[in-house]
TrEMBL record:
Gene3D superfamilies: endopeptidase domain like (from Nostoc punctiforme) (3.90.1720.10). It holds the Pfam family LRAT. PANTHER family: LRAT DOMAIN-CONTAINING PROTEIN, OS05G0310600 PROTEIN. This is LRAT domain-containing protein. It comes from Eucalyptus globulus (Tasmanian blue gum).
Amino acid sequence: MPPCKECEYQETINRGVIKTCLDYFRWDGKKFRSLHYYEYGWPLLGLKLTRRGTCTMLLATKLAHQVIDTACKLHDKNYFGNYNLINNNCEHFVTFCQMDIHSSEQTAFVSDCERKIKEAKEWTMKLLQRN
């Protein structure tokens, strides 16, 4: 795919969190994808009844221009670190830009499962060592 005429982003250059114009972000190669509003401050029950990645119980703490300033600074100076699907993904980036919290509700389930598996393994090893 050639570089975007608006923002000059080229797909082969970077992976992870990228900086593009809105049209390039929405383009899937055939058509424009629709945008969905991410909502903050949802009650727990509402959160459980919606699709993951569409809302959070956390409250938004910054104005739009502050979020954009934070995102540009983090991205331009590569302060957010290397992309990692579980521990440092685009939702972590957005949540940090909006609330200064490094969090991803989409990956929290996977992280919880990893932790529980590790705990079960440690418990089993202790049990086996006793015998």
